[in-house]
From TrEMBL:
The chain crosses the membrane at residues 25-46. Keywords: Endoplasmic reticulum, FAD, Flavoprotein, FMN, Membrane, NADP, Oxidoreductase, Transmembrane, Transmembrane helix. One of its GO terms (cellular component) is cytosol. SUPFAM superfamilies: Ferredoxin reductase-like, C-terminal NADP-linked domain (SSF52343), Flavoproteins (SSF52218), Riboflavin synthase domain-like (SSF63380). GO terms for molecular function: flavin adenine dinucleotide binding; FMN binding; NADPH-hemoprotein reductase activity. It comes from the Eukaryota. It is an enzyme of class 1 (oxidoreductase). Its cofactor is FMN; FAD. This is NADPH--hemoprotein reductase. PANTHER family: NADPH--CYTOCHROME P450 REDUCTASE, NITRIC OXIDE SYNTHASE-RELATED.
Length: 680
């Protein structure tokens, strides 16, 4: 019992001991409570903070986002410029002219800058008067059927919608066009007219350059009158400074990581090794060539059909679109330039813009080697323009050769005539000039700075995406001719494509390409009749059209009359797609096949002669059947002759005068019932 009697505690336990026990108990409780309160407060504090921060996140992201400075006014103020030269350029020529004009400005105590309208907010034009002696110049090319170039599309849209007051703006326009096209210099004319309508002051007349004639001479003639007008307007004089001014400085890389060197890519470094959609001009897709066959059975020319595999590229196209390919220059031409200039072409270098504020840091992707630049980035086969000759003249050690170069670059009538005969008509490229002027040995880096960029080549797609969703077909003829100097000149792209033949072992060559959308479209209703006129390789888009009409017919759709007028030189030599066309006719898809063999008889027969022969049927299809007319091929002769034939047919069967017939055909064009896909 004693063992069980712990409650009978020792009566000797003192009151002090009891108090100590109580103190210990309270301190433990305090610690617990304080910890609990601290924990709850901390949890509540952080929880509340999170709730408060959530609404602020978008604001923080907005502040952190990079803002692109799109004000050319601020840039001009910052860099002390007073002349801005905007360019609408598809092939680089308008950009080149803009650069030349902006460089000219220093000769008159002014400072210029060339600008891509796509990179700036053009509504700032109303603020240009904030800058003393300010002027806006526009070098505007016309693309296709009177359209703006890709980089000028936004500017064109803004001009159409703008109600801005441009009364303080002084301007001048030089247009680049081609007289063989229906809408000659439409963009230049529109910009000139519209700026005046918005209140801007024209300080010099509109210049109209014609690429079918001599575009370089047109530009020089306009420029030599433009600058005196600028001087008179602003009360300035030429400083007499005619010295060559380098735009880029050379940096040679002796110790460089080759993974950071461009090897032909158009935009992103290593983009050909690591392909990522979407694919466009700055990011082309490397398509495998799965087929490359000769189409003609005889003759001196080489006509070919190529098929490009676009599987897994996410590229979409429609019949009538264009495929652009980036070619490479002939390696033998590149090597010869290297040999003449005594250069190691594999030297890795960069050309860096001396104007640190410029958006254009390099003339082509850098760092790269001279070999890559001359092969993939620079145009070495076209005759160089006069500004290139002027800049190169200083390097000719022979006084006679130097004088000759300077004369050709001058605005004197004798100089223009010499340039026309010795360079343009003789088709002398830079290699030929170096060969024919032994004392002219410029530094290769300055030559690379001066040469224009090698441009993509466009071809009408010869297939339908309904039938060939993973393949794009090209029909082309190789260009090869002898010049007046006895040299054999070859077309860059067509000869390069000719060499792209798939190997027997299954390996396929690659072609950098992208698709450019077109307005050349089949009618919305398949039942609408179509009249297609396309001699030679102009038949290309119509192969796609007929494939699509055949596919629509297979889907059970009612397909209207499909009429083709095709032409070639000899039936037994260059009748392209003979078997395919015969099959389409047999299947009833191609309701009429009219072929003109121009040289199989004494008198030449062309497609327009066959149109006249069938004029009653043509008028019935157009007038009663509401047919759509499509013309593809040579703009200089064929397209014009075909159009004149339609004027005659409309005049005769529509009982109209010549002017009324012309107006009738023009209205067909406006309504999209007469479409052109032509080249010169």
């Amino acid at each position: 019992l004693t063992a069980m009697g712990e409650p009978n505690m020792d009566p000797t336990i003192s009151a002090a001991d009891s108090t100590a026990q109580q103190d210990s108990l309270f301190s433990m409780t305090d610690v617990f409570l304080i910890s609990l309160i601290t924990g709850l407060f901390t949890y509540w504090f952080f929880f509340r903070k999170k709730k408060e921060e959530v609404p602020d996140l978008p604001k923080m992201q907005t502040v952190a986002a990079p803002v692109r400075d799109s004000s050319f006014i601020e840039k001009m103020k910052k860099t002390g410029r007073n002349i801005v030269v905007f360019y609408g350029s598809q092939t680089g020529t308008a950009e080149e002219f803009a650069n030349r004009l902006s460089k000219d400005a220093h000769r008159y105590g002014l400072r210029g800058m060339a600008a891509d309208p796509e990179e700036y907010d053009l509504s700032d034009l109303s603020r240009l008067s904030e800058i003393d002696k300010s002027l806006a110049v526009f070098c505007m090319a016309t693309y296709g059927e009177g359209d703006p170039t890709d980089n000028a599309q936004d500017f064109y849209d803004w001009l159409q919608e703008a109600d801005a007051d441009l009364s303080g703006l002084r301007f001048a326009v030089f247009g680049l066009g081609n007289k063989t096209y229906e809408h000659f210099n439409a963009m230049g004319k529109y910009v000139d007219k519209r700026l005046e309508e918005l209140g801007a002051q024209r300080i010099f007349e509109l210049g109209l350059g014609d690429d079918d004639g001599n575009l370089e001479e047109d530009f020089i003639t306009w420029r030599e009158q433009f600058w005196p007008a600028v001087c008179e307007h602003f009360g300035v004089e030429a400083t007499g400074e005619e010295s060559s001014i380098r735009q880029y400085e050379l940096v040679v890389h002796t110790d460089v990581n080759m993974n950071k060197v461009y090897t032909g890519e158009m935009g992103r470094l290593k983009s050909y090794e690591n392909q990522k959609p979407p694919f466009d001009a700055k990011n082309p897709f490397l398509a495998q060539v799965t087929e490359n066959r000769k189409l003609n059975e005889g003759g001196e020319r080489h006509l070919m059909h190529l098929e490009l595999d676009i599987s897994n590229s996410k590229i979409r196209y429609e019949s009538g679109d264009h495929v652009a390919v980036y070619p490479a220059n002939d390696s033998s031409l590149v090597n010869q330039i290297g040999e003449i200039l005594g250069t190691d072409l594999d030297t890795v270098m960069s050309l860096n813009n001396l104007d640190e504020e410029s958006n254009k840091k390099h003339p082509f992707p850098c760092p790269t080697s001279y070999r890559t630049a001359l092969t993939y980035y620079l145009d070495i086969t076209n005759p160089p323009r006069t500004n290139v000759l002027y800049e190169l003249a200083q390097y000719a050690t022979d006084a006679g050769e130097q004088e000759r170069l300077r004369k050709m670059a001058s605005s004197a009538a004798e100089g223009k005539a010499l340039y026309l005969s010795w360079v343009v008509e003789a088709r002398r490229n830079i290699l030929a000039i170096l060969q024919d002027m032994p004392s002219l040995r410029p530094p290769i880096d300055h030559l690379c700075e001066l040469l224009p960029r090698l441009q993509a080549r466009y071809y009408s797609i010869a297939s339908s995406s309904k039938v060939h969703p993973n393949s794009i077909h090209i029909c082309a003829v190789t260009v090869e001719y002898e010049t007046k100097t006895g040299r054999l000149n070859k077309g860059v792209a067509t000869n390069w494509l000719k060499s792209k033949v798939p190997e027997q072992n299954g390996s396929s060559p690659l072609v950098p390409m992208y698709v450019r959308k077109s307005q050349f479209r089949l009618p919305f209703k398949p039942s609408t009749p179509v009249i297609m006129i396309g001699p030679g390789t102009g038949v290309a888009p119509f192969i796609g059209f007929i494939q699509e009409r055949a596919w629509l017919k297979q889907q059970g759709k009612e397909v209207g009359e499909t009429v083709l007028y095709y032409g070639c030189r000899h039936e037994r030599e260059d009748y392209l797609y003979r078997e395919e066309l015969a099959r389409f006719q047999k299947e009833g898809v191609l309701t009429q096949l009219n072929v003109a063999f121009s040289r199989d008889q004494a008198e030449k027969v062309y497609v327009q002669h066959l149109l006249k022969k069938n004029k009653e049927n043509i008028w019935k299809l157009v007038n009663e059947g509401m047919a759509h007319i499509y013309v593809c091929g040579d703009a200089r002769n064929m397209a014009r002759d075909v159009q004149n034939t339609f004027y005659e047919i409309v005049s005769e069967f529509g009982n109209m005068s010549q002017p009324q017939a012309v107006d009738y055909v023009k209205k067909l064009m406006t309504k999209g019932r007469y479409s052109l896909d032509v080249w010169s």
